[in-house]
Amino acid sequence: MKPDTFEDAYARIQAATKTRTQTEIATLLGIKQSSISDAKKKNTIPDGWLITLYRACGLEPDWILYGQKPASRREGFAMAEGVPGVHETAHEYAAAPTRTTVYAMARTDPETGAWQRESLESIPLIESLSRPHLLVVKMDNAGMEPVIRHGAYVGIDCDVVRMRTGEIYALDFPGEGLVIKRVVRDLEAKRLSLLADNPSHPAQHLPLETPGITPVGKAIWVIQEI
Known about the structure:
By secondary structure, this protein is of the alpha+beta class. The chain has helices at 6-17, 22-29, 33-42, 47-57, 61-66, 90-94, and strands at 98-103, 119-125, 134-138, 153-157, 168-173, 177-186, 191-195, 204-207, 214-223. The protein is globular and about 55 Å long.
């Protein structure tokens, strides 16, 4: 999908942050005002803006770039549509849920260090949450809170392994098992950053083509307590 024009994305940023001038936005982003003009000439929103706006304001990268709702999943955000949830039709409720296996994240192969599937439990799953190659895991840490809480069930679409900046992916991390992080691919610096939404957890910065780290799929839904 091709992103919207810079002007459209910039207008969304202004509306969400309630800023009116380039000076105000530059201050919010921690950049020089001239950087805004540079981005406008290139007709692109830099990845660094997306990360800053997500962390500081809770703005979703897909909303900024493409206008895809919700604008934010952060509780109390003025432009959010309320507490995020799943919307099913009456037909979907009529179908009985099927039970799906939930796997642990930390199990690794003692010889290779690669992640291994270890069944924990099974949960009922409605049809609208299913995918042809769906993996469901139980989050075993607080690194992605508040978006994904410790103990949440996370749905991973294993057909989506091409990583896009700002999205959340499950990665097979040698020796650690499965990790769930927000990724930033910096092509200029040839660096892959793995970000935790929880500010108390540090980011990891790796070479873009780090051997052994394999994307398993994209996080597409979360089931957790409010």
